[in-house]
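Encode chain A's predicted structure.
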Amino acid sequence: MIIYSVVIFQVIAMIIFFERIMRSNLNKFYQKYDLLVKQINELTNKSALLEDEKKQLEHNEQHISAIYEMGKSFVRQIKEEDLVYILKEQLEHNHISFSRLRLEDDLSDIVYSKDKEVFSLIAQNEKLGYLVIEGLDEEYVQDINILSKRLALSIRRFHLYRGVQQLAITDSLTGTLSRNYCLERLDKELARARKFSFSLSVAMLDLDNFKTYNDKYGHISGDKILKELSLIMRQSLRNVDFIGRYGGEEFLLVMPEASSKGAKFALERIRSQIASHAVDLFKDRVNLTVSVGIASFPADSEAFSDLIEKADKALYISKKSGKNKVILFSSQK
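Encoded structure for chain A:
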């Protein structure tokens, strides 16, 4: 009986021992399980955050790309006046709402209000004007600020282009057209005259005794004479007329829609104004004179080069007959 009781006691003790071991292991298991669940939840949250960040980055990338493409569209333009139209079109295409948009040279006439945003257009430390937008949502202000920098660069490029173009078509000394560009314009005007049956007159004008002035007073004084001469001519011509420096002291004047009679009347007035104008050369006051030859389309010729040649022949006759005269080629036939 005693042995049986001992065995039973030992069995019970072993059961209690194993129960405690199992309970301890279960507690550890549950702890590890809870930790694993917590880590899984943290990873799930991080994954969701990363997914949101990815979507935000993709959105920002698309947004920046759209702004970049909008800026690129400015560079492709060749006229400054097209920029406002292109900017409006791009903003509307990208669903950026506004009520009014314009470029301003200064802000003297601007009436400020809460819905009006003004962006300075500055490129290479040069202020080129202002972009004024009304009704723009605040969330797009930074975007337009970026675009305004690209816009300023494009405007500056236009200004540089115009400056180079002006140098190419203008005689730097007299401010008249260069010979090549003047001839190019004459060719176009002659084509228009043929198409619409208009008259057109060409005049060759030469400063009398220019070599004498150069020899006596020097080339700097000669340049001064040419500048003052060209100024008188440019101020006396109509807006549709144009004048180019043909070479040295010789000028080519083109008068669209002017008959030989009308051209002679206008050039007699110019000749008279020049003759009455005194130029100060050191201590002397010099009165200039010019000789002029005129040929007209279609009366004298319908050919480009022949028209110039006949105007030059009329100029030669003016020189030979005493200078300070306006001679029509048609009067010498």
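The radius of gyration is 43 Å.
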